[in-house]
Amino acid sequence: MADKTRESCLICQIVANKVPSHKVYEDDLTLAVLDVNGANPGHCFVIPKNHYPIIEQVPDQELANLFGVANKISSSIFENLKAQGTNIFVANGIPAGQTVAHFVINVIPRKENDGINLQWKPKQLTQEEMSTVELKLKEQIENIGVGKIEPIEGSKTLSGPVQAGTQPISEDDEDEDYISRQMNRIP
Ligand SMILES: [Zn+2]
Questions:
Q1: How do residues 123-138 score in pLDDT, each as one tens digit?
Q2: 28 CA → ligand 1 middle, Å
Q3: Nearest-CA neighbor of 63 among 174, 146, 169, 172?
């Protein structure tokens, strides 16, 4: 990303210590700070030090590190703030509520009846609608090569329905189209 983008990015300013923040964790790739306008005391942002507007742009290994840190912060929130639950979530794109063009993971401490509402009204789909959506998603996921996730050296191979290495890395036009479509969502 161009330096100009970083200069105008609030999160990059925090990473560069140009904007003061309350840091709860830092390593080479990742920073976690308290959200000054948090939903509850202890609401943290886990952020990549590199500037990535949306999750699709974050390299897999950095993403793994980010979510690992989010998990540790969640544990600390349980232990030290006596939370009864945490929400760990990402607002990815403007319609999803993303307001800053730098990927962040929110870790929000939760207690019963704390007034935070992350609920939605379930939508009932017909079997046909479900099958159509299932098919579309499967195709798309194959095109973007989810299977290219490589395990970090020394770690165990990813398990689950999507096996590492089952899909070849494709650098074709469909990937390009996919990325350019995602760019429209960046705040
Ligand atoms: Zn940034």
A1: 999 999 999 999 989 8
A2: 15
A3: 146
**32, β-bridge pairs:** 25, 46
Q: How far is the CA of 41 from the centre of ligand 1 (A)?
A: 24
Report all structural domains of the chain as residue ranges with CATH numbers, in order of start: 3-110 (3.30.428.10), 127-183 (no CATH)
Q: Are 68 and 88 in contact (CB under 8 A)?
A: no
Read off the pLDDT of residues 74-94 as tens digits, 9 standing for 90 and up. 999 999 999 999 999 999 999
Q: Taking the model in full, what pTM does it have?
A: 0.77
Q: Tokens in use for 4?
A: 């100009």
Token pair, residue 6, equals 């970083």
Ligand 1: distance of its center to the CA of 157 in Å? Answer: 31
